[in-house]
Specification:
The structure holds 2 protein chains of 2 kinds. Chain A is built from 12 helices and 14 strands. Chain A has 2 domains: about 1-225, Rossmann fold (3-Layer(aba) Sandwich), CATH 3.40.50.300; about 230-295, Protein-tyrosine phosphatase receptor IA-2 ectodomain (Alpha-Beta Plaits, 2-Layer Sandwich). Chain A is an alpha/beta fold. In chain A, the strands form 3 sheets. Chain A has a 6-stranded mixed beta sheet with strand order 6-7-8-3-9-10, with helices on both faces. Chain A has helices at about 45-50, 70-80, 95-105, 110-120, 140-150, 170-185, 195-200, 220-225, 240-250, 270-285, 300-305, 310-320, and strands spanning about 1-15, 15-30, 30-35, 60-65, 65, 80, 155-160, 190-195, 205-210, 215-220, 230-235, 255-260, 265-270, 290-295. Helices cover about 75% and strands about 0% of the residues of chain B. Chain B has helices spanning about 1-20, 20-25, 30-40, 55-70, 75-85, 90-95, 100-125, 135-165, 165-185, 195-200, 205-220, 225-255. Chain B has one domain. Chain B starts with a helix and ends with a helix. Chain B is an all-alpha fold. Classes of the chains: A alpha/beta, B mainly alpha. Chains A and B meet through helix 2 and helix 3 of A and helix 1, helix 6 and helix 12 of B.
Chain lengths: ~325, ~260
Amino acid sequence: MNAIEASNLRKTYKGDVTALDGLSLAVEAGTIFGLLGPNGAGKSTTVKILTTLSRPDSGEARVAGFDVVRDASRVRRSIGVIGQKPGLDPEATGRENLEMQAEIYGIVGAARRERVEQILDQIGLARAGDRLAKTYSGGMQRRLDVALGLVHRPKVLFLDEPTTGLDPEARAELWHEIERLAREEEMTILLTTHYLEEADRLAARLAIVDRGRVVAEGTPEQLKSELRGDTVQVELVESSNGNALAALQSLPGLSGLSVDGRLLRARAENGAAAVPAVLAALEQSGLQVASATIARPSLDDVYLRHAGRSFEQAETDNREEAL
Amino acid sequence: MIPLRHTWQVALRHIRALLRQPAWVGISLTQPVIWLLLFGALFKRTADIPGFTGGSYIEFLTPGVVVMLALSSAWVGMGFIEDINRGTMDRLLVSPIWRGALNLGSVAQSVLSLVIQSLIVIGLALAVGARFQNGIAGVAALVAVAALLGAVFASLSNGVAVLTRQRETLIGIVTMVTLPLTFLSTALMQQSLLPGWIRWAAKFNPVNWAAEAGRSAAAANADWGLIASRTGFLALLLLASAAFATRAFNAYQRSA
C-alpha cells in the first residue's frame, strides 16, 4: 500500500516560474523515501503540496489515503512536518511549545502531560524544558522542531531538508533518529535533501528531481548500478576544455565524457585499466595532469546522467535563475 | 468545542508572551497618557468654547483616549509576519488547527491587554478629576465598545499582515489609516463643534461609533439606544473583519 501518491503535479508561481512540471511519485507505507535534487528543483514545492500548505495548479495527490485538496483536514491529522525553517515559537518554553502542539492534535489532559514529558526526555530537553526556546542552542532548537513534528505520532512524516545548517555531529545524530523512527514507529517518511550522502544513507528508495520533474527513481543501489563501471576523474593543471575533450574522445572504452573547468570526468568499464591510456592521451596533447582518481559511481554521477548537468552546476544555475 | 480549545491555545500563547514582557503594557501606555495629560492640559480651555457641553475637557477627553487605545490593536498583525518569516505559520497551517482560532486567539490577547490599559487610563483620569456619571455600568460599556473596536482593528491587521507578509506595508497602512480616523471623529472634540464635512465623514467612521457610544456611556444622561446601535455596528464590523482575517489565512495557503 502506498502512503503517498502524487500524479502529474504542476505548479507555476507568479511571474511564470514553473516549480513543478508534471511530478509523480509513490511511496510505500513504512519506508523512507528520498527526494533528491539541488535547491530550486521543486522538492519544497512538492512537500508544500503534499502537506496541504499549497495547492497544485493541476494533478492529484493522496497522503495516508486522503486527497490533499479535497480532504485536507484528514491529511493534516495524519501527517507530521519538520520544515526547513524553524517552526517553534521562540517566546515560549520548549514544554509550552509541545503542549500547544499536542492540544492542536487533540492530545489533552493526562495523555498530553505524559506524552510531552516522554518526548522532552527522548530529545534530551527534559532539563531545558522550562526555558524559553529562544535561549536554546541551534541543535536544541532543531531537536525541538523535530519533536513538534512527532508529538502526535503521525503516520506520515515529511522532513524538508532536515539537516541543512547542522554540524556533522548533529547531522549524524538526526540521521540515527530518523532511522529509528522508521523502524520502531513504522512511519512513512518522505525526506527531501540536497545532500547526496544523506539520501544514500537513509532512503530505501529515492527519486531524483530536476526542473520540477522526477528524472530517475529507484533504490540507491539500482540507480548507481545503472551506471556501469567506474568514474575516472582527472584534474588538469590548467583548464583547456576543447583540447582535453578532443584528446579523449577517440579512446575506446570511455563514455559519458564531461569537462568542468580543470576537471575531466568519464566512465569506464574498468577504471584502473583505463587510466594509463587516458594519461597517455592527455600527455600527447600537451596537457599536464595534476591528479587522477577512480571512484565507484556515486549518486552525483547518477544525477549527472539523468539531469544532464552536475549537481553543483544545477545549484549554481538555479541560484542564478532565482536572481 | 474544538474551535474554542484551539482559540484558547492560540490566545494562551500570545498572553504568555505578553506576560513575559509586562514592560510592554507600560510602554504602549505612554502615548495615551500623553494624550490624556498633555493634550488634555493643552486644550483645557476647550471647555470654555460657547456651545461645549461636556463639563471639563479632561472628562470629555477620557472616553476619546480610551477609544484611541483600541487603535493600537492595529499593530498586532506584526506577530503573524514574524510567524511567517520563521516557519511557525507553516507549522500551524499544516496542522489540523481550526483556522478561525489563529485570528481569534490573537484578537483575544489584544482585547485582554486593551482592557487592562483602558482601566489604567480610566484610573488615571479619575485621579486628575474626571468623573464617570454612570458608575460601573458606564465604565463597563465604555471599555466594551473600546474592546470591540480593538477586536475589529486586530482582525483587520491580522488579515492585512497575512496577505501582504511585509512589515513595511503593514506599518504604512496602519499609520495612514489610524491618525485620520482619529481626527475624523468626536474622540477629541464635541460633535456640534466639528466642521460640517468632518461631522458627515464621522458617521461612517467606526472610531467615531466607539467614541460616541463610549462618551455617552460615561456622561450624565447616557443614551442607551445610541450605545446599543453603535455597539451593534461595531459587532457587525467585527464579524466581517474576523471573516476577512480567516479568509486571508486560506488565501495565504493557496498562494504558498
